[in-house]
Amino acid sequence: MSKTNDIEELTRIANELRIDIIEMLHKSGSGHPGGSLSAIDILTALYFSRMSHSPGSTNDSDHDIFILSKGHAAPAVYAALAKSGYFDKSHLGTLRQIDSILSGHPYSQSTPGIEVTTGSLGQGLSMANGIAIARKLDRRSSRVFCMMGDGEIQEGQIWEAAMTSAHYKLDNVVGILDNNGLQIDGFCHDIMSLEPIGDKWRAFGWEVIEINGHDMSQILDSLDEALTIKYKPTLIWAHTVKGKGVSFMENVAKYHGTTPTDEELQRALLELTASGN
Amino acid sequence: MSKKENLSLRDAYGETLVELGGENPHVVVLDADLSGSTRTSKFAKKFPDRFFNIGIAEADMMSTAAGLAVAGKIPFASTFAVFASGRAWDQVRQSICFSKLNVKIVASHGGITVGEDGPTHHAMEDLALMRVMPNLTVIVPVDAVETASAIRVMAQTNGPMYLRTAREKFPVLYDKGEKFNIGKGKELKNGSDVAIIACGLMVSVALEAAEQLEQDGISTAVINMSTIKPIDSELILRVAATTGSIVTAEEHSIVGGLGSAVAEVVCENEPVAAVVRVGMKAQLAQSGKPKELLELYGMNKSSIVGAAHRAIALKREPAHKSGSSS
Asked: Predicted confidence band at B317 (pLDDT cuts at 50, 70, 90)?
């Protein structure tokens, strides 16, 4: 589908994708709604506005690449890929089933539009660096976007990769931190403190842009601003709400990996349909 | 086979990398602060723009290599075998192997001949750890000549691969230009009583053992099994059928490496053949000179000779004798 800069249109698409996420997770009966819903506004801005990509030519080095390092939010990417035309929307109903092209976590060998395999956390930023280095060798100006979870940055490899991005001055790497504040066992600040997040990334040599990850115009502006940062990588530090858009899932750790019941599905759809109007 | 000089496998790797760098602009090299030891430093000097030292961060190096492969490069990633296989196991698994990416992991300092650095740096589990990986080819070259050929084949063949070199120089068994084929073992010597299937340094030890066995009237075959995965089942089954007695020899734990791979093939196809494994049986070694350690932990000529006698005895006395009293 064609790209748009229209905030209302992008907001409408994000809402539509939220419905897709909830429906596919209800059908599959397993998966991760919370982190999918916190990420979907940013994904919408990437796939339907700012990212250069095309279902027909995924190997084109002039195209941007998106890496979902927090692989458990796969349903959000699947919804964006289906709407972008990488595969038919009917596949969304097969999530996590035998012979489906949609694995529980992103698997490059089965899903069109998924470039790398993620799920075991902490590996995406390193892979983004590798692609970014290759793009520079090939003198291409395309970018690599890598979305990480806030819980995920407890993985040591993220900081190894953060050093590498800065050392090699990878200004074509845009890290996006989906800072929804929760991880499986509870609030991040109770499990393993992450703050001061911005200072940490800045100390590692990154430019940090702090935004509200559900404010579409802030998301678009940050992606544009990242383009202007030269000789260092940029982190878009996005404050988000886990489960965003479905009131009873918002900020509830349980919905990291619990799918909606029949009754919850109806409640969620009512809310999302109402906000889409 | 006449005695020849000893040459370094890692030197052969470093020199071949430089040749490849000149031939193919897509060849890139990564290291994790061991480029002098792994010999990627030669490539770094010649092609600084295509060399990436990732620092002491093996996990990051493997996933970065994966990204380079996604973007069409042919990355060679090097560090010591303990770190490549152990420290970065999950990154090799998920970032590289799951996606069948064209990453070439060349790990130096394989086995116990790392020597004085001690058991933390002895790679006695790398073949087991890498053999279980999905989609990964695992290669243990026998000498510098085979290393150079294998590195060339790796660069030309798509898919994830692991190759183990060594700190020590190994006796040269092949003439320059010897062809390497992935998945093909080579029978260096024929024999009908027992077959020694070995890899890496243990091949030349096996040849010495075979000489002694022949003097004792035992006809001994010696096979260089330089690809551990995919293993050459056809060759294994052929010698299993002709000799009925197999000895495996590797500079690695007897668990999970070449010996296990051979035993798996024999057990499921030619179960009458005996398989006796020579390799590291102790849980951990200690610091020492390479030669001393090989002797102390039974990766030597006398162990192979003893194993051959045992394999022959096992063949002659099947465990499932019928009519035995209880």
From this structure: low
